[in-house]
Design a protein that fits this description.
The protein has 421 residues and is α/β, with parallel strands linked by helices. It has helices spanning 17-20, 28-38, 64-75, 79-85, 91-103, 114-128, 134-154, 163-174, 190-201, 213-223, 230-233, 256-264, 296-311, 314-335, 338-363, 368-398, 402-411, and strands at residues 4-11, 43-49, 52-59, 87-90, 183-186, 207-209, 226-227, 242-245, 270-274, 291-295.
Length: 421
């Protein structure tokens, strides 16, 4: 390829999170500007999540040391730390990696959906700042479409594989029109965070309570939800249709008596999901008419089953990626010939229009219908003559036959300095 695609990355796979965080780029607009000015890249896209910071770039000639130096200047890090944590790949390997990303194969949580949205946001941001161009825009558009197709065909992302997302999915499956129902989340710890994220992602409103209202408010500020005083809910479980319990209380927080009293004033049932370890919902609650109780062990069993199902899909997804990466590589190679092809078509079209005007003037033709027929005729003649050699130039580029592409460049007197624009 006359234009190289490079991927430089620091990820959870080769760096612990506390080290990874040091590579975070805070001012993205400035970063794009600096990379294009100083790293030797004329296109770039930055993907930044809690588990990875990655740079995709395009250039004819690139220097990894310049990329590291520019990145170091943006983060205040010493260049030496990059040697221990950064990974570089080019062209086919970069395409392969991007497809693993979009299909969910390189995520910390296998098959997770969030990375695809983050990649879409990354290329959108790069487009808006004019940091990306024809090559990376094409690469990312194709990779996103391929990744989405792989996910759909393989089912790699099906089934919740976190306790939080699985609990919410079970609530969806067991409670009709969950968005219209009242939901309560008891607890503000790690599992509660997973539940809140999942509820937010699906657009559900919910109340949150904890031992202190201040803790509930702090939780809701970052995770969403409406903070409720702990004392107000212990005798008002009848207000809720779904209750997620994820606390570390050393006793039964939700008792048979409390739920029995709640059901007296309630026409509809309650679903309770006890995500606590040890359990904080009395198992006797499950015997109350109209109540469905699921505990952490039951949910964890489903999560494990889903994780195993995803693991079984890995080989299938890898096989699809290996097929798709060859097609993607060919498409990217063809792009190298596009500036020449466009210029040839543009020049020939200009000549066609010039000669058409001369002919119409000589014929003194004024009939619009006849002019249209002559115009379409000349277009068809030009198309039939030019299409085959132009497609052959594209194929030569795809097959990396640089001698043929260079010969075509000379034959058509194409000035290559426009190619990088």
């Amino acid at each position: 390829m006359s234009q190289n695609i490079v991927n430089a990355r620091v990820t959870f796979r080769n760096s612990p999170i506390h080290v990874l965080e040091q590579f975070t780029i805070k001012d993205m607009d400035n970063a794009y500007d600096q990379f294009k000015k100083h790293s030797g890249l004329d296109e770039c896209v930055i993907i930044q999540t809690c588990n990875r910071i990655e740079l995709f770039g395009k250039s004819k000639y690139h220097d990894p040391n310049k990329i590291k130096k520019t990145w170091a200047s943006l983060t205040g890090l010493e260049e030496e730390i990059f040697n221990e944590n950064i990974e570089f790949v080019e062209n086919k390997d970069a395409f392969h990696h991007l497809l693993k990303l979009t299909s969910g194969l390189d995520s910390m949580v296998l098959g997770e959906e969030q990375i695809l949205g983050q990649i879409k946001n990354s290329i959108t941001s790069a487009r808006e700042t004019k940091a990306s161009g024809q090559h990376l825009n094409t690469l990312f558009d194709k990779a996103i479409r391929i990744g989405a197709r792989i996910r759909n065909s393989s089912g790699i992302g099906k089934g919740g594989i976190s306790v939080g997302s699985m609990a919410v999915k079970l609530a969806e499956e067991n409670v009709d029109e969950l968005k219209t129902k009242k939901t309560l989340l008891i607890g503000t710890g790690e599992v509660s965070t997973l539940v809140a994220k999942s509820l937010n992602r699906r657009g559900y409103s919910f109340d949150v309570t904890s031992r202190t209202i201040s803790r509930s408010r702090m939780f809701c500020e970052t995770m969403g939800g409406n903070p409720i005083k702990f004392e107000d809910i212990l005798t008002r479980f009848d207000k809720y249709d779904v209750i997620f319990v994820a606390t570390t209380a050393p006793y039964f927080l939700v008792t048979e008596e409390k739920i029995t009293n709640a059901m007296k004033d309630k026409n509809k049932g309650i679903m309770i999901l006890d995500l606590s370890n040890p359990r904080t919902v009395d198992e006797k609650v499950a015997t109350i008419r109209g109540v469905k109780l699921m505990n952490l062990d039951q949910i964890a069993e489903i999560v494990e089953k889903n994780m195993n199902a995803r693991q079984n899909k890995v080989k299938e997804v890898e096989n699809i990626i290996n097929e798709e990466v060859m097609i993607l590589e060919a498409s990217m190679k063809r792009l190298d010939a596009e500036p020449l092809v466009k210029e040839v078509f543009k020049n020939i079209e200009s000549l066609r229009e010039k000669e058409l005007r001369k002919a119409l003037h000589m014929l003194d033709e004024k009939d619009e219908k006849k002019i249209k027929i002559i115009d379409e005729l000349t277009k068809a003649v030009v198309e039939s003559i030019v299409s085959t050699p132009m497609n052959n130039i594209r194929k030569a580029s795809e097959q990396e036959k640089s001698d043929l592409v260079n010969l075509a460049t000379k034959l058509f007197d194409y000035k290559k300095q426009d190619a990088a624009d």
